[in-house]
Amino acid sequence: MEDNFSSYHPVISFFFFLFVICVSMFLMHPVFLAISFFSAFSYNLILYGIKKTLKNNLLFILPMMIIIALANPMFNHYGVTVITYLPTGNPVTLETIIYGIAMATMFCEVLLWFACYNEVMTSDKFIYLFGKIMPSISLMISMTLRFVPMLRNHMRVIANGQKCIGRDTSNGKTTDKIKNGVKKVSILTTWALENAIDRADSMRSRGYGLKGRTAFSIYRFDKRDRAILIVMILLAITFFVGNSTGNCYVSYDPIVKVKGIPLDLYSCITFLSYLTFCMLPVIVDLYDKYKWKALRNNINKKENRGYRLWT
Amino acid sequence: MKRYFNVLIIALMLFLLCSCGKSTDELISSKMTNEPGGSCTISIKCDTLLDNMDRLKESKRDFVPEKGIILDTTKVDFFKGASVYDILKQVCEENNIHMEASYSITFKSSYIEGINQLYEYDAGEKSGWMFSVNSKFPNYGASSYQVSDGDNIEFVYTCDLGKDVGDNSMK
After folding, report:
1. CA-CA 20 to 30 A from B115: which of A44, A79, B53, B81?
2. Which residue segment(s) compose the domain that B90 sits in?
């Protein structure tokens, strides 16, 4: 589903994801975690729809979260509130459990952001941004990002082909199954290597990365890009200044200490700026949809002479 | 194919998870028997931290007691074959003092990481817990030192590889 934020200039999308992913990787404050998780999830909803988002998250991210939250108290034992003792004599503490949950949330929200990044920052945008500065690296990155889905598709093709000539992995002796499986993987590897060389050759023959070569692009840095960039920079500065005052400090070791709750002026400003920044794509998209609807209603009111443009 | 691949990945992740932690199985097995083996005294102190408060992490400062004594000298009756680690564990559980230890495979002995939330490296890279028996610092782990009757065990926090608590074996 194409959302409005994706239609902005690639610099805007890249700056947004760079900031949001880098920052949410280091923030452990519960309010920040909640904000980032909520915004990432709602942006996922816009990009993928309810069904796909829930499917992706319940299948992979939720079990991962539970594993991380449970694993942390097994390996860390600091904290004042002892719940029980492990057979080794080390304590299981409430602090490590809380930290585990916070860490799991952080991990999860970064994955959610990356899911959005994949959808918004397509490889043509990436190449457009970095093709001039570092041609070979940006081509390699976009090729590697494409690798997993491409290999998965081609594996299916190979499997079908092998099935036709009777080298199937679904029946037969176990040794035969393994033999056929290995053959499939070897075919895939050969194909992948050849494909990569082919692609490199074809890019070279087109003069990719040569000096003075221009590339066609449909991106233009216009007024709304400038406006949103200014807003983003202002919000980012407010956030960094607010965060550096120490009013959003949190520590889990050895006592859970959370500053900024209840809200004071500084922490309120910091939280608000972070919330607005993370919600920017959602706000932009919802505003766009609202505007579209309002304009359509206007037309309907005006064209009230026996026929309607839209129903 | 896909299912096997998933199982493989999960197995790999579990393996990685397990290898992250230090092996702790050996912490449980001690050579303790059921016969009484006498009594010893034990104390836990961190008075070196009082002089190095500025180097200690800010979040840990509340955990240094006023005179640096976490546990005053206490008399403990122990079973035959008990190690210094066994006695520390027993004392900490009785007095509700937090303690964390891990088994180090290289030295085949348990290593005291932290007592009362004060951990190794909390006051600079030369800091951590050491123990002495009858004012001598044995140069091996707490679970490989067998306690004998009348021993005087002291756990001390050092901020300078033992030099500030009277051990000069590390140079």
Report:
1. B81
2. 22-165
